[in-house]
Design a protein that fits this description.
binds glycine, 421 residues, Dna Ligase, domain 1, 5-stranded antiparallel sheet, Rossmann fold, 4 domains, 26% strand, D-amino Acid Aminotransferase, Chain A, domain 1, binds adenosine monophosphate, alpha+beta
Length: 421
């Protein structure tokens, strides 16, 4: 069969890598892809939210399955558009993807179906939001309602920061229409963990727990990024807590979405805070996480195409996900300056020189005059699988030392929190 992957980051490289291991797959296309994906797939120069161009490609190449990576095309209705033409596609429809596309909608679902989350209020008026923040007179979190490329959340330890966030989002409109409404919520404390699950709208099959590292510097210091590394399984989610998250969060969310005429099909991602009152939801995403997908798919033993097809057929109950023993760790190599402004076009060396069981998933890379060069903030995810977390950390960093480009920086403590358990 022929598979099209929509997107061009580390997550999509991991998807292409895993899908390429399926004996059923004859050819992979990717739009737009990157230099790493180009080794496994035919990359087509189309943007991930150019719906007409994607439909044309699917028609022209007779694609049997399209897999949508990023949130923007999901929220724009790419899945609906392909389904309307009769093409099989993996990912939630627009109304379901809104669980990520509107934080207000996500909070309402959680509120209505008793899913544990931070207390919150919604505002479409800046002055009222500010009055509320002043009344709180303490830490809070301000969130733009719509998609903001992962930058729409401001964790405010003090009133001044929260008021400035409302100014930026609602008055200066730094995220455009995404900031027409804001959610102001209670600041939760604890350790974060991500639970991703496959769902066909009825059955929910969770993946291993994964942990992202959002801040740019070691020990969770500095500004937030798209994610500087991840590992799985994350021991913070003990088997008991995992069951609790499944029963109190994932299943009620899927049931709630179905009850609201938003049947959810695809991967549902819950960003969780492990508080002293138990796991609470920080956010839902309508897709695989990036970089969590890199270690998760390296740990997945089952054929991903089989899982996706069973899900689309509504037969997820027959799927028994199999995982490799041990653990996987992904260390992100970023461009100098990221998450602020950064340059592009730096030549990357050492990619052919990685140890066994280490894969360099490409994120922001491209080919220039036959050389792989940097083309984004997050450039590579050096991902290793080994017998346990300490071994996988060791192996991933061995891989990291082989790779070089000018300005490269990365965190030295990916996976370290797992050792606290
Ligand atoms: P979100 O996009 O909602 O996951 O927010 C991005 C990041 O902001 C999360 O991964 C957390 O680190 C942080 N965050 C979001 N909501 C809260 C909250 N209520 N309390 C503390 N941190 C939060
Ligand atoms: N790693 C966080 C995300 O994919 O949203």
């Amino acid at each position: 069969m022929k598979v099209l992957i929509v997107g061009g980051g580390g997550r999509e490289h991991a998807l292409a890598w895993k899908i390429s291991l399926s004996p059923r797959v004859k050819k992979i296309f990717c739009g737009p892809g990157n230099a790493g994906i180009a080794q496994l797939a035919e990359c087509v120069d189309i943007q991930d939210s150019n719906i007409p161009a994607i439909i044309n490609l699917v028609r022209r190449e007779k694609i049997d399955l399209t897999v949508v990576g990023p949130e923007v095309p999901l929220v724009a209705g790419l899945v609906d558009a392909l389904e309307k033409e009769g093409y099989p596609v993996f990912g939630p429809r627009q109304r379901a993807a809104e669980i990520e596309g509107s934080k207000v909608m996500a909070k309402e679902i959680m509120h209505r179906y008793g899913i544990p989350t931070a207390r919150y209020a919604v505002f479409d008026n800046a002055q009222q939001a500010k009055d509320y923040i002043k009344q709180l007179a303490g830490p809070c979190v301000v969130k733009a309602d719509g998609l903001a490329a992962g930058k729409g959340v401001i964790v405010a330890e003090d009133e001044q920061t929260a008021l400035a966030a409302v100014n930026d989002i609602m008055e200066n409109q730094i995220f455009g229409v995404a900031g027409r409404r804001v959610v102001v919520e209670e600041l939760l404390r604890g350790e974060e963990v991500s639970m991703l699950a496959f769902t066909d709208g009825e059955h929910v099959v969770p993946m291993l727990a994964a942990q992202d590292h959002k801040q740019v510097y070691d020990n969770d210091l500095g500004p937030n990024t798209g994610g500087m590394g991840a590992y799985a399984p994350a021991p913070v989610l003990t088997p008991e807590l995992r069951q609790q998250v499944l029963e109190n969060i994932m299943i009620p969310a899927v049931r709630g979405m179905a009850a609201e005429d938003r049947p959810y099909r695809g991967v549902l991602y819950a960003g969780l805070m492990m508080t002293d009152k138990g796991p609470q939801v920080l956010e839902f995403n309508a897709r695989f996480g990036d970089p969590e997908t890199q270690p998760l798919l390296m740990m997945l033993q089952s054929d991903l195409v089989d899982v996706m097809e069973a899900l689309l057929a509504g037969e997820l109950s027959k799927v028994d996900l199999r995982w490799y023993d041990g653990a996987s760790v992904c260390v992100v190599l970023a461009s100098g300056g990221y998450p602020g402004t950064y340059g592009k076009g730096e030549v990357i060396n050492g990619l052919a020189d990685l140890p066994e069981n280490v894969v360099a998933f490409h994120a922001g890379t491209t080919l220039k005059n036959g050389q792989v060069v940097t083309a984004g903030g997050r450039v590579l995810g050096i991902t290793a699988r080994a017998g346990g977390i300490p071994e996988a950390i060791e192996l991933a960093y061995q891989g990291v030392t082989r790779v070089k480009f000018s300005g490269m920086h990365y965190r030295k403590d990916i996976g370290k929190k797992a050792g606290n358990r």
